[in-house]
Amino acid sequence: MQSFRTVRVSRASGDIVQQIKSSIFEGRVAPGDRLPSEKELAAQFGLSRITVRDALRVLESQGLIEIKVGAGGGPFVATPNSEAVTEVLTGMLRLQGISIKELVEARLVIETSIVTLAAERATADDLRAMQEAIAEARAARAAGKQRFTPHSINFHIALAQAAKNQVLFFTVNSFRTPFYETLDKLAPDDHMAQRAIEDHQKLLDAIAAHDAKRARQVMREHLAYFQERAEKLD
Q: What is the DSSP string of 161-194?
């Protein structure tokens, strides 16, 4: 079991966090491993259980550990979870108060790269996930539902997954909330829903055909349409 050295009281909680982080990042403890109990950590660090508890809460809030309760509970190294990264990035974006123009510009840079990689790396499961998102959007439109935003986001998330690059996936995933809010502000109508469905199908067809050039072209046109609608709000 991983052991830790005592720390100075003046910066106790921060030092505990850094030592446990180092153990995780350097591979001395792996996802799913149980860390020493709160009592054991307090003894190793030479500090109170309250200080250790505060440090563990910080690590939990950062998505690095999971604190389980009940028999067999305690602090465990968390399994990698994209939602934890997404929440942090989304919070930062919202705190900065990004503009619609900035969102569109970022999407243009990132998603044209994503479609290039997806055209090379997409698996049958990735293509199926994108097709399902399109099918759901078509069904919603046929039922007279104008709130196609969740289906549009699902398509772009599946597309990012197909690029097989975790950094790009986490980045696109962090756009979900501001993207959702922006689409809702655009007051999406039937024409916008149809345009999104058509563009998504063109993107899927290009990726399935491994045609990166065509996929980039469609993505640029898709985002240009989105930008034109968005600029009327900004």
A: HHTT-HHHHHHHHHTHHHHHHHHHHT---HHHHH
